[in-house]
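Running this now, will post back.
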Amino acid sequence: MHEAALGAVTDNPWHGRCHNPHRPGFTAGGSSGGSGAAVAAGQVRVALGTDTLGSIRIPASFCGVYGLKPTNGLVPDAGLVALARAWDCTGPLARSIADLGAAMRALAPLAPADPPRVIGLLSAAEQVEMQRPVAEAWRLAASLLEGLGCDVRRFAFAPDLGQVRLDGFIAAAHELSAAGIAPQRMSEGLRRTLDWALAQPAADVAAGGERLAAAAAAVHAVLGAADALLLPTTPQAAFALDGRHPTSAAHFTAIANIAGCPALSLPAGWTADGLPVAVQLVGRPGSEAGLLSLAGRLDHVLGGYRPPRSN
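Update: finished.
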């Protein structure tokens, strides 16, 4: 896992790198990168991850598997080391929707729910720079949902998704710092991250909290008119461990945590050089069963999981 679960790379300075099964030398995502890699490589059928701002769905996207972040508070968190207690969720990653659903039902009772019919596309997502295969997969998934009888609509969404991710990251870093972890148990990189977050002016941190509350309200407002949202899972495919690491991996995932909503990531295509990309369905709290049902129908036409090629 990524150190302290506060990152999307899983290049752990204490325990080593986790490589993407589809491309050695590339990230498996994070913070639950090991779970995504183990599932994608066929080592296990199901693995657990934790998701505070996207840490189940980002590895699912980068590794080409399925990941479900449940409704906040649905799965008991006893034994979970907190990062941001209000947003932390435990959920499964798997190579099929069937296995994902079976694992989720073992973790918590699922309330019956009809498959979402009205699907929302957020205007703010169009403002996020994304790789062409990601944008194409998003458009394809929207078209396929229309073919399955869904009513796909575009909704105005004022919050800046990148700012939501940044505000959430700063809030999580503050909470982790307050946990009192001994500095000698942190890498230099983690200490620098926490020092940067703690150096932010108090007024800016307070304003960030207000923006997060407004973003959560905006999500629920859209979900008052739509049954679920369709978003890319990550703006990019997996990137090289050596070199520049983009900071936008959680731009599309963080709002589900902030709003307390379930979100399911499923494979949705491939880059020209063979790396997976994904889309996610975000539903109203308690709608896991409906998301699983719709994801199963969409998965049949998207093509689903593909085993890694021999490397």
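The first strand starts at residue 11 and ends at 12. More later if anyone needs it.
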